[in-house]
């Protein structure tokens, strides 16, 4: 009885406001400044002074939340994927269930094998890949670039997300075009905007920006605007450098 | 396909050089550049075609001529301001873009279940009107590109009927920014229901006229039947969704499979055809317009009085909007309240409007069945008042990859029909 | 009370400038340069509800070589800019440009890396048309205003004098330029 009481007390101690406050203050500061943006003079969206990052979440079984019907299928999906991967089960670093969506965080080396299982395993059958979305987190050291894939199974009417990361210093992720041909342009777009190199892509060239463009414009370290217009040798500087409306 | 490596490159440059080259060689292969400024490419699309006589042996697509940087621009604006940007992506389906984005934001906020019923009904209503408008433009531009200007004038005339209603409801003909995180910007104005009832009376007749003109038209059939065939396996591999996959025999529709905005409560069919060609896509689109009318009719029955914005002072827009002599703005009642009634209300209004609301850290993907296919929105938040990253999976972007599969081996004239039947909108492709 | 009252009925007097202006404005041939949202409204203006044919402009040409008006309808990306300039260069003189919508006029809400901040960076613009997108009626209004401008354009020596005067006036104006030192 007393043991149970002590355990309860210990659990509650972790939730004490003071303890939580200490933890919050110990977390690294992710963003400072009055107005998040520091590349333009824009001041809309005033967002306070400091934002602290939170630790990555890893969900544990059971993944199905009885209160959330969207998650009902997730244990079956996780089991099927585990069975499909077999001895390569370490491909999945962690599983996250949030907002009724399931995310598999995958080591990039194992991505290609995993998506092959996702497509071909009769218990999974994710026939449709809805592309890859790049995300750049400059302060996530060693895993700055994320490649986020969304898969949809028409057979089982289910959707999951697969996420893999690559460091800025070595921005390589295997291409999954050989499994999902639809990802051809999506991967080119992610390369164009974020500089993620998809190894094994048949023709990884720029798709949205001009071929001779410098830099990858949707990375966080790329400014929003201020690009001069060049045409036949003449250059027109961007408006901010040219006119003043004070 | 010819085996010779010799070819004439007419993809740009000086015509004299091209002619000189053509006279020097006996090659039959010709590389031509079509677009990005060409009347038959559905916007600023560039096609690089290798022709062997009249046969198109290779079709390559160049895009990016309308890249607008919308996704990056959104990272510098609040979550609410984001709707103003996404509506300008695929400018023929603005309300779908807004809804996909708002559903993702609402998922991140975990308020999906708390959106008022009336707001959901209005969303469905405007989306279905938008679907009809988009399909009319799809047919109109298809006609124009094939040289059938009657289709074009008819399509645009019918579209005006839809736009009149959208303008009455949202204030704008296009680029509405009407669907907002938490609900919609404002309630239906007086007279809107009456106008929609008029539309429901007129529209079936107009669709019938369109079908009378095209369904059995021998020229139209010759240009569309068995042209640009894409089977179901091809659709799946290339990620093709929407009317195109339904024209290849699979009745896949997110409104049925993963209902959102209360679509599970509407009675409608998903038109399917197994032709897999341009004509089948046309038939699916026309049939979808009939289904849209059915849904709109049910929306009118479901419209019960109530709020149209979430009743959460931390998220919902503080002001009721009203139409004044100088346009749409905060209602006079609200201005009187914040300027002379309550200091707290003024502070609240100021904070929420300038700073915006915070969205918890995380990521969400939400998809809607737009007029073109699965329109997905991947939104990432870092816990701030602005999006950290928003990415759109646009159906037009994905579907354009199918051009090579549909065109190669056909005649060059069929390339036009194939591209037009995809109904790509470059604003959505390039974002 | 002048000479014109002595003239026989059925004649009208005008200047060569006015005749040329009338001819030029009455049959403008626009080159389609639809880019984004505005292009759809431009096409609506050609449709039955708004009917740009009333102004003799229904011949939306596909080829720039047989056009004298370019309606830049939509946002111009950095990738599209050289194409746009090339099309403009292919149009024969005299030619006019309407920048339709805020994106074409100034970059509009897209102040970012991808969009040219106003098409006047690459081609001279005669008429700026605000709106996002402008209604077809607004496009018609811009067209009518441009017609007025074309009608009253001077020719030859008058034109040269007009240009010189305009330049003189512009040089005296204080410009909102950033100090470069």
SSE map:
The complex is a heterotrimer of chains A (246), B (431) and C (181).
Chain A: H1 2-14, H2 17-26, E1 29-32, E2 50-52, H3 74-85, E3 92-98, E4 101-106, H4 111-120, E5 128-136, E6 145-153, E7 158-166, E8 172-174, H5 183-194, E9 197-199, E10 229-231, E11 234-236, H6 239-242
Parallel strand pairs in A: 4-7, 8-9
Antiparallel strand pairs in A: 1-2, 3-4, 5-6, 6-7, 10-11
Chain B: E1 8-10, H1 15-24, E2 29-34, E3 46-52, E4 55-62, H2 70-74, H3 82-86, H4 94-109, H5 117-146, H6 149-170, E5 179-180, E6 183-184, H7 192-214, H8 218-224, H9 232-237, H10 243-246, H11 254-257, H12 278-302, E7 321-324, E8 327-330, H13 332-341, H14 343-355, E9 362-369, E10 374-381, E11 389-393, H15 395-399, H16 403-407, H17 412-422, H18 426-430
Parallel strand pairs in B: 1-2
Antiparallel strand pairs in B: 2-3, 3-4, 5-6, 7-8, 9-10, 10-11
Helix pairs in contact in B: 4-5, 5-6, 5-12, 5-17, 6-7, 7-12, 13-14
Chain C: H1 16-26, E1 30-34, H2 37-46, E2 69-73, H3 81-90, E3 96-100, H4 101-106, E4 127-129, H5 136-151, H6 156-172
Parallel strand pairs in C: 1-2, 2-3, 3-4
Helix pairs in contact in C: 1-5, 2-5
> Which structural class best describes the helix and strand composition of chain A?
alpha+beta
Number of helices of chain B: 18
Instruction: Pick out the low-confidence regions of chain B.
Output: none
The helix/strand series of chain B, from N terminus to C terminus, equals EHEEEHHHHHEEHHHHHHEEHHEEEHHHH
CATH level-two architecture of the largest domain in chain B: Orthogonal Bundle
Q: Report the total helices of chain A.
A: 6
Strand order of the main beta sheet of chain B, please?
1-2-3-4
Number of strands of chain A: 11
What are the low-pLDDT stretches of chain A, counting only 5+ consecutive residues below 50?
A: 33-37, 39-43
Major sheet summary line of chain A: 5 strands, mixed
The major β-sheet of chain B equals: 4 strands, mixed
* Amino- and carboxy-terminal Cα gap of chain B: 36 Å
* Sheet with most strands: strand arrangement of chain A: 3-4-7-6-5
Mean pLDDT of chain B: 87
CATH topology value of the largest domain in chain B? Cytochrome-c3 Hydrogenase, chain B
- Give average pLDDT of chain A, whole number: 79
Subcellular location (chain A): Cell membrane
Keywords (chain A): Cell membrane, Membrane, NAD, Oxidoreductase, Quinone, Translocase, Transport
Family (chain A): Belongs to the complex I 30 kDa subunit family.
Biased composition (Basic and acidic residues) (chain A): 1-10
């Amino acid at each position: 009885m007393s043991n149970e009481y002590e355990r309860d007390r210990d659990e509650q101690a972790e939730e004490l406001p003071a303890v939580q406050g200490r933890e919050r203050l110990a977390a690294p500061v992710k963003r400072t400044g009055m107005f998040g943006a520091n590349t333009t003079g824009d001041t809309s969206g005033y967002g306070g002074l400091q934002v602290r990052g939170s630790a990555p979440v890893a969900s544990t079984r059971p993944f199905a939340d009885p209160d959330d019907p969207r998650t009902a299928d997730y244990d079956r999906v996780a089991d099927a994927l585990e069975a499909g991967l077999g001895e390569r089960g370490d491909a999945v670093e962690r599983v996250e269930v949030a907002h009724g969506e399931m995310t598999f965080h995958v080591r990039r080396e194992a991505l290609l094998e995993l998506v092959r299982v996702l497509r071909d395993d009769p218990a999974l059958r994710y026939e449709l890949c809805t592309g890859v979305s790049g995300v750049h987190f400059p302060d996530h050291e060693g895993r700055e670039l994320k490649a986020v894939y969304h898969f949809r199974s028409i057979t089982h009417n289910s959707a999951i997300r697969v996420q893999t990361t690559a460091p800025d210093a070595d921005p390589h992720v295997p291409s999954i075009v050989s499994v999902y041909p639809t990802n051809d342009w999506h991967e080119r777009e992610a390369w164009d905007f974020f500089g993620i190199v998809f190894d094994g892509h048949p023709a990884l060239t720029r798709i949205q920006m001009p071929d001779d463009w410098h830099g990858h414009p949707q990375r966080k370290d790329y400014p929003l605007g201020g690009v001069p217009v060049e045409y036949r040798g003449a250059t027109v500087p961007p408006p901010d450098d040219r006119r003043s409306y004070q | 396909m010819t085996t010779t490596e010799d070819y004439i490159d007419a993809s740009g440059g000086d015509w004299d050089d091209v002619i000189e080259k053509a006279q020097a060689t006996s090659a039959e292969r010709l590389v031509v550049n079509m677009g990005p400024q060409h009347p038959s490419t559905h916007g600023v699309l560039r096609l690089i075609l290798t022709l062997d006589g009249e046969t198109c042996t290779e079709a390559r697509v160049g895009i990016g001529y309308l890249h607008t940087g919308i996704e990056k621009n959104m990272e510098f604006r609040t979550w609410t301001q984001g709707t103003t940007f996404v509506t300008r992506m695929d400018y023929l389906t603005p309300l779908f873009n807004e809804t996909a984005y708002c559903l993702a934001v609402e998922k991140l906020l975990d308020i999906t279940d708390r959106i008022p019923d009336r707001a959901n009904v209005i969303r469905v209503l405007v989306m279905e009107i938008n679907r009809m408008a988009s399909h009319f433009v799809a047919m109109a531009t298809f006609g124009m590109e094939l040289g059938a200007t009657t289709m074009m004038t008819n399509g645009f005339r019918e579209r005006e009927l839809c736009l009149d209603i959208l303008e009455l409801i949202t204030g704008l003909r296009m680029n509405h920014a009407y669907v907002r995180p938490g609900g919609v910007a404002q309630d239906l104005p007086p007279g809107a229901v009456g106008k929609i009832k008029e539309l429901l009376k007129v529209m079936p007749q107009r669709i019938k006229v369109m079908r009378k003109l095209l369904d059995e038209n021998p020229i139209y059939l010759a240009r569309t039947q068995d042209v640009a065939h894409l089977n179901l396996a091809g659709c799946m591999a290339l990620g093709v969704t929407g009317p195109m996959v339904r024209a290849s025999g699979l009745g896949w529709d997110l409104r049925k499979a993963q209902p959102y905005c209360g679509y599970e409560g509407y009675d409608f069919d998903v038109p399917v055809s197994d032709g897999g060609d341009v004509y089948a896509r046309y038939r699916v689109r026309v049939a979808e317009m009939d289904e849209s009318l059915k849904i709109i009719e049910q929306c009118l029955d479901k419209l019960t009085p109530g709020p149209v914005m979430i009743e959460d002072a931390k998220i919902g827009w503080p002001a009721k909007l009203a139409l004044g002599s100088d346009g749409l703005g905060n209602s006079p009642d609200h201005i009187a309240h914040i300027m002379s009634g309550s200091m707290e209300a003024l502070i609240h209004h100021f904070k929420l409007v300038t700073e915006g609301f915070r969205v918890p850290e995380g990521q969400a993907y939400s998809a809607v069945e737009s007029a073109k296919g699965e329109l997905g929105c991947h939104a990432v938040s870092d816990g701030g008042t602005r999006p950290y990253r928003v990415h759109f999976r646009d159906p037009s972007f994905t579907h354009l990859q199918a051009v090579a599969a549909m065109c190669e081996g056909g005649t060059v004239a069929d390339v036009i029909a194939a591209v037009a039947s995809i109904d790509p909108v470059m604003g959505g492709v390039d974002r | 009370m002048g000479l014109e009252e002595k003239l026989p009925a059925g004649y009208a007097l005008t200047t060569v400038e006015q005749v040329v202006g009338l001819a030029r404005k009455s049959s403008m041939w626009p080159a389609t340069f639809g880019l984004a949202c505005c292009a759809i409204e431009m096409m609506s203006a050609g449709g039955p509800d708004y009917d740009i044919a009333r102004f003799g402009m229904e011949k939306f040409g596909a080829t720039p070589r047989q056009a004298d008006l370019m309606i830049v309808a939509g946002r111009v990306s950095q990738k599209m800019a050289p194409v746009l300039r090339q099309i403009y260069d292919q149009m024969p003189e005299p030619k006019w440009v309407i920048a339709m919508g805020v994106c074409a006029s100034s970059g509009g809400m897209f102040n970012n890396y991808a969009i040219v901040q106003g098409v006047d960076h690459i081609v001279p613009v005669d008429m700026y048309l605000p709106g996002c997108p402008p209604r077809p009626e607004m496009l018609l209004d811009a067209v009518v205003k441009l017609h007025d401008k074309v009608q009253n354009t001077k020719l030859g020596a008058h034109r040269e004098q007009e240009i010189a005067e305009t330049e003189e006036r512009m040089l005296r104006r204080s410009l909102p330029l950033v100090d470069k030192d």
